Amino acid sequence: MIAVLTGGTGGAKFVDGLRKVVPPRELTFIVNTGDDFEWWGLHISPDVDSITYVLSDLLSKERGWGVDGDTFQCLEAMKRLGEPAWFQIGDRDLSTHLRRTHLLREGKTLCEATAEITKSLGIESTVLPMTNSPVETRVTIPEGEISFQDYFVRRRFRDPVNSVRFSGAENSSAAPGVVDAILSAEMILLAPSNPVTSIGPILAVSGIRKALQDSTAPIGAVSPIVGGAAVSGPAGALMAAQKLPVSVAGVAEAYQDFLDFLIVDSADAEASQLFTNARLEMYSTNTIMKTNDDRTELARAVVSFASDSKKLKVAS
Amino acid sequence: MIAVLTGGTGGAKFVDGLRKVVPPRELTFIVNTGDDFEWWGLHISPDVDSITYVLSDLLSKERGWGVDGDTFQCLEAMKRLGEPAWFQIGDRDLSTHLRRTHLLREGKTLCEATAEITKSLGIESTVLPMTNSPVETRVTIPEGEISFQDYFVRRRFRDPVNSVRFSGAENSSAAPGVVDAILSAEMILLAPSNPVTSIGPILAVSGIRKALQDSTAPIGAVSPIVGGAAVSGPAGALMAAQKLPVSVAGVAEAYQDFLDFLIVDSADAEASQLFTNARLEMYSTNTIMKTNDDRTELARAVVSFASDSKKLKVAS
After folding, report:
1. Pick from A41, A92, A116: which is nearest to B98 by CB?
2. pTM of this prediction?
3. What tens digit of pLDDT does each residue of A23-33 get?
4. Which of A171-175, A277-281, B20-24, B290-294 has the lowest mean pLDDT?
5. CB contact under 8 A, B83 and A70
6. Which residues 89-118 of B have a C-beta within 8 angstroms of A?
7. So what's the ipTM on this one?
8. Measured between alpha carbons, how far is B238 from B23 in angstroms, rounded to an integer?
9. Domains along chain B?
10. CA distances for A189 relative to A2, B2, B21, B262, angstroms
11. Mean of the per-residue pLDDT values for chain B?
12. Is A80 on the interface with B (CB under 8 A)?
């Protein structure tokens, strides 16, 4: 079994590669829910949705979010009714939010609702929201504190960021199955997701970081930072706000208390040698996922690195 | 000001004609909410929607319900997620239910939510749901008691009906503005709607029947029964279940305690003479609304009859 911590569009691409080189039943995804928010009265869980869509072949490759070939009739009509339209929900995409919200209002947990939805879509992997508790990523910009979606989607991450916090994390607990998945995994991978706002909320949930520290499996991360900048999105600015170097060293630092190996892009192979040490193994390969082949090749390389790492670890 | 009690597809057609012969600002619609139900976790108000759509030029003339030219992408996706699909909601139509449900969850009443939606759509007439209280039309068939939508849409009104009741009506009160609209109207019209399940629930709401009895304005109804059968839908079977003759006489009987005039189809002109009396005036005209012209001509005739009736009433 492989446990994967993931969130964001980089995470979804990595998951897409992974599901093609590992039998889907052997994959458990622990997914960021810090971006969850209420929209039009519905519970939206953007990262859970992206993983769900990628695993069911529904994700729009063009956009990197939402359902491929979706239409936006409802969104257009909502504008006319005075509802905000800056978060774009397609008509097919909407079904997931409606179904989830309906299940939650019937008393199901987010985990249970996710299990029902993924099962309906024929997904064989396990998709675990990191927690059933409300944890909300809050971003402080010069104008004040706003939600992550406000910062990321509505304001298109243009604002300077002073700090990031995960509201509710201190009182949260890991969703059922999350800690077990980590402790029983033979390999644990951190997708090339934003370390601050995609992986950060997962690590902030009570018990998850501890489980990673306790795990005897090799734990590897793919750096979302290439050549001193994020491959996409605001990871750079957010890492800087959290006082992390915007470099592969910063990624290593974010995970330093549990990480066994770090996969950096070939472009960073040299830079990574600066902090290679006995504890942290470094691998380099092409991590930029432009094509389907890039995705599967990266996944294959990562799994291979982890197998190597495991051997080394067991031998030590 | 004209107050109109309405519901169902016959009601929507009549309203379409009326809005073309009377300035929309002078029209107040008191609309059946006995068919309201929860669907996919959303509050659906079919009769309020039909009137809203007809007044904003959105109603599908082809179907008689929903939004013209709508698509059904979300519905198809909902089927895959295991939600029922027998009540067909289009993608644009969905926006109305989402917006209403969102407003209700924010604490707005059904009346307030309806006012916001109709305003957004540029509707100048007043659309008043009959009540903000939960009133539910329940139909008893041989297999037991079911909801109106279950009987009407899912089972396509094929079951024999033993009885009909309006659950919650005894504890309901008319929505703000309803009694005032009736008492201050210069003319009150009952659309050619099903007397049992479209107009019946309105009359069952506390205070509405009394207001009609107290009104000094002429009150007229257009018969939905032509030649001893309903123009469309299950009005015949439901009238029989309520021990009403399935005829224009049955329509007169349903409204006997407040009705001043009844408009019957030309085909029933003779039959209607059987119960013409000093209290109830009878008019006949073409009431079958196949074309747009049929709708406006019927509306024009009804308003004209009401004006005559008023004079007669004042003179007596």
Report:
1. A41
2. 0.93
3. 999 999 999 99
4. A277-281
5. no
6. 90-92, 94-96, 98-99, 101-102, 105-106, 116-117
7. 0.91
8. 34
9. 1-316 (3.40.50.10680)
10. 7, 69, 70, 76
11. 94
12. yes
